[in-house]
């Protein structure tokens, strides 16, 4: 399967041939999010993107390392320019739903684990990291497993294992197209789009209805049943008292 992944050349495609306003394609970089931030200035257009075959210092949420061996994981960072807090609140979940939708089109039955993971049969296939540059500039970084790599956690799965064959540039374009479609909806009519995203989450979020352990940023653990995601994108847990989480590392508890 490894030979079916097409290697990206170090080049920039013209906008007429890509969903991106500009796509910087690199062989190796420390982090595509960091590289996009380095290239950012006041004139950088929305949907400016950076991708690389290998990341030497890729990061996930809470500073975790995201392993990216050469051509074994898609690493893609895209610049979005929100104009409201409502959009910012939903960027990570929106991106997860967009990635899930793109995978569904490839025949992969994926779900969302709140707030930023895409799972297949409870194994992680993709992770998302949103980072704000300023009040109106957000980088969304997407990592997606193409093949299993050294150091990949046991609870992970790759497109290779799922028997998905697609050229890497085509995969990047599919992901970009899906994100752009969702983002257009969230930009043109945020309240209507958020209602639609909530409905979609009800169908495809494997966290909902599940007993979870939520590790809060300070290290405290909260246990409960995930019962809803509110209009701000926060996770609502049923514990002895209802708890609403804006940020947490969530673990699904099956036993």
Would you report the number of β strands? 13
Structural class: alpha+beta
> Strand percentage, roughly?
25-35%
Strand count, sense and barrel status of the largest sheet are: 8 strands, mixed
Q: Report the uncertain regions.
A: 1-12
Cα distance, first to last residue? 35 Å
Radius of gyration: 18 Å
What spatial order of strands do you see in the largest sheet?
A: 1-2-3-4-8-7-6-5
The shape, in one word, is: globular
Mean pLDDT, all residues: 88
The number of helical segments is 4
Series of secondary-structure elements, N-terminal to C-terminal = EEHEEHEEEEHHEEEEE
Helix content: 25-40%
Describe the structure.
25% of the residues lie in helices and 32% in strands. It has four helices and 13 strands. A hairpin with a 3-residue loop joins β11 and β12. The N and C termini lie far apart (35 Å). Mean pLDDT is 88; it is low at 1-12.
């Amino acid at each position: 399967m490894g030979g079916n992944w097409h290697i990206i050349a170090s080049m920039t495609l013209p906008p007429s041939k890509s969903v991106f306003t500009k796509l910087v394609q690199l062989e190796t970089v420390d982090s595509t999010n960091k590289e996009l931030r380095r290239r950012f200035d006041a004139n950088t257009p929305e949907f400016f993107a950076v991708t690389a075959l290998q990341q030497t210092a890729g990061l996930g949420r809470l500073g975790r390392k995201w392993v990216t061996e050469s051509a074994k994981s898609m690493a893609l960072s895209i610049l979005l320019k929100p104009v409201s807090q409502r959009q910012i609140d939903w960027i990570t979940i929106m991106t997860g739903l967009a990635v899930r939708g793109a995978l569904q089109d490839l025949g992969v039955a994926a779900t969302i684990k709140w707030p930023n993971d895409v799972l297949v049969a409870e194994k992680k296939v993709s992770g998302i990291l949103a980072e704000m540059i300023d009040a109106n500039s957000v980088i969304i970084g997407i990592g997606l497993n193409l093949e299993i790599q050294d150091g990949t956690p046991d609870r992970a799965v790759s497109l290779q294992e799922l028997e998905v064959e697609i050229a890497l540039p085509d995969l990047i374009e599919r992901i970009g197209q899906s994100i752009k479609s969702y983002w257009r909806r969230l930009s043109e009519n945020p309240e209507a789009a958020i209602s639609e995203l909530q409905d979609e989450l009800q169908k495809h979020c494997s966290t909902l209805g599940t007993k979870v352990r939520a590790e809060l940023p300070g290290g405290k653990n909260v246990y409960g049943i995930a019962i809803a995601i509110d209009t701000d994108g926060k996770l609502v847990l049923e514990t002895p008292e209802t708890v609403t989480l804006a940020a947490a590392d969530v673990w699904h508890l099956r036993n």
